[in-house]
Amino acid sequence: MRKSLVAAALMSASPVAFSAPLIDIYAGAYTWNAEISGDIATGSDKVDLERDLDFDKTRENVFYIGLEHPVPLVPNVRLRHMAISDDQRNTLTRGFSFGGGTFVAGNTVRSDFDLDMTDLTLYYSPLDNWLNLDLGLNVRRLDGEFTIASGAQRGHEKAEKTIPMLHVAAQADLPLTGFYVGAEVNAISYDGSKLQDSTLHVGWASDFLLGVELGYSRMDLELDDVSDLDSDITIGGPYLALALRF
Predict the structure, then answer these.
(1) Which end of the chain is more exposed for a tag (fewer CB within 10 A), N or C?
(2) Closest among 44, 21, 68, 56 to 235, alpha carbons compared
(3) Residue environment code for 40-62, b if the CB has 16+ CB neighbours within 10 A, otherwise e
(4) How far apart are alpha carbons 120 and 152 in whole angstroms?
(5) How many Å apart are CA 135 and CA 205, to the nearest integer?
(6) What topology does CATH give the domain 4-245?
(7) What global pTM score does this model have?
(8) Domain layout of the chain by residue ranges
């Protein structure tokens, strides 16, 4: 599938692409500001990220590099790293326990949220013309860390897991117009946990490689007792970007 390397508006990117005979190498980086909602828990108390900790928006940095080739039976490959982080202060309206710390109503707490995900995607492109389709396996290494502190009280928990996911991506190019529409999904559900990230986009590419792209990206992260952490988190929002297509 021809790749869109996007930048600007809600995202800023620095893509690079290289070509050799019959081999395409693509790379890029962007930052995305998105809304975050949901809850986390290490016991019976669910901590609401919005109402309890005042999280609203988060920063996501994404870097990726990939290689596509015509060798039969050998999959194309993409390596992608996503780093999500935020910190907030809030005065509690209720008490709760988290990660070994106990917090009471009226206290001011500082919360830190860091989530790193590294994806190795191996995929085939059974369709690669005006209609592009990618099918494959996405192996995700997830490293999450949550900290809540107030005075002498400190709650801390990590989540570490390597997770295989189904990878599906599709893009349709409207002939002779430069317009295209596309989507990508990575997903798995197992043992009470569910991970899914999806992107929908429409765009236009000129004959000079430049174009624009409008899309919506969403990530759902439901973890059931992964390294003693439970979570039900949604991160998502729209983006408007400049694009380079090769």
Answers:
(1) C
(2) 56
(3) bbbeebebebeebbebeebebeb
(4) 41
(5) 24
(6) Lipocalin (2.40.128)
(7) 0.84
(8) 4-245
